[in-house]
């Protein structure tokens, strides 16, 4: 009996590839485990190659399976986009652009862009999702995002990057801290403090830059807490659990008992960049990039 690959095969395969467990994948798909196993076996017969290595203890992907997982994720994400864009265009809109961002981009860059978009292309819909640098890059590669706002020095092949805003850094202190803009002279005055920073996994470039700011003053920061949200960092500072260093623009929009001292004399800068995939086929992406890059 001859078979051909169908969409269900890809959905079944991806479920197993993510779970690496047939029973768990079957439960998520609401089908029987034997039925799922038959579908995967049929898929392997059609492709004439094994996709999984199975034994009593674990399931893992073969090299062919690992390749297929990446491709299937992209295909299914793109199919979902096609359906969504078709529906959006059918409703009379030009299309939708999916935007990923770091929290600091929401202070100025994204609100300005959204306002320009509304004024110039009111028929373009937007969706926003706050994600780490790494998650944005991954989502772009898998066709889950169209545009990302990140703090990265380099990106993988196939992704374009352009700086859109350069910012200074500021020290964040509790409101009652002895240091102020008047008596703050150098970072060395904070060498005995505990530091609360954005997690290195969330923004490696930011983390390394902050460490370099401290090291230029002759000490390594004692990092006591990490977070992916500015509000959490500021709340910890407010409660005298440490100090922080953040892009200066993050000081706006929060009402807490903290103070900011801008580090005007240091060479380090917080650079926010826009990234997009060079072969992205979203018909409204060009309109958006023209506005962002001006």
UniProtKB/TrEMBL annotation:
Pfam family, one: HTH_1
Domain HTH lysR-type per the UniProt entry, residue ranges: 5-62
Coiled coil regions in record: none
Keyword list, A-Z: DNA-binding, Transcription, Transcription regulation
Annotated Gene3D superfamilies: Periplasmic binding protein-like II (3.40.190.10), Winged helix-like DNA-binding domain superfamily/Winged helix DNA-binding domain (1.10.10.10)
InterPro entries: LysR_HTH_N, LysR_subst-bd, WH-like_DNA-bd_sf, WH_DNA-bd_sf
Protein family according to the UniProt entry: Belongs to the LysR transcriptional regulatory family.
UniProt cross-references to PANTHER family, sorted A to Z: HTH-TYPE TRANSCRIPTIONAL REGULATOR CYNR (PTHR30346:SF28), TRANSCRIPTIONAL DUAL REGULATOR HCAR-RELATED (PTHR30346)
Name of protein: Transcriptional regulator, LysR family
Organism expressing this protein natively: Zobellia uliginosa
């Amino acid at each position: 009996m001859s078979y051909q690959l169908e969409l269900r095969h890809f959905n079944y395969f991806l479920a197993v590839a993510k779970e690496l467990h047939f029973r768990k994948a079957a439960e998520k798909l609401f089908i029987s485990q034997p039925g799922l196993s038959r579908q995967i076996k049929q898929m392997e017969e059609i492709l004439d190659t094994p996709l999984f290595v199975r034994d009593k203890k674990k399931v893992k992907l073969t090299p062919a399976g690992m390749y297929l997982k990446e491709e299937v994720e992209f295909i299914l994400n793109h199919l979902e986009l096609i359906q969504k864009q078709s529906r959006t265009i059918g409703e009379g809109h030009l299309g939708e652009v999916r935007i990923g961002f770091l929290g600091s981009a929401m202070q100025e860059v994204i609100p300005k862009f959204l306002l320009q978009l509304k004024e110039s292309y009111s028929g373009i819909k937007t969706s926003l999702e706050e994600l780490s640098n790494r998650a944005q890059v991954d989502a772009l590669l898998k066709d889950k995002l169209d545009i990302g706002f990140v703090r990265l020095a380099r990106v993988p092949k196939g992704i374009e990057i352009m700086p859109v805003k350069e910012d200074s850094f500021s020290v964040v202190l509790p409101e009652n801290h002895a240091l102020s803009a008047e008596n703050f002279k150098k970072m060395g005055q904070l060498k005995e403090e505990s530091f609360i920073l954005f997690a290195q996994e969330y923004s490696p470039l930011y983390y390394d830059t902050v460490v370099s700011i401290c090291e230029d003053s002759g000490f390594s920061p004692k990092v006591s807490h990490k977070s992916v949200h500015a509000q959490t960092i500021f709340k910890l500072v407010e409660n005298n659990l440490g100090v922080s260093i953040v892009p200066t623009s993050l000081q706006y929009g929060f009402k807490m008992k903290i103070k900011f001292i801008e580090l005007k004399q240091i060479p380090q800068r917080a650079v926010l960049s826009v990234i997009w995939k060079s072969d992205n086929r979203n018909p409204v992406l060009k309109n958006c990039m023209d506005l962002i890059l001006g």
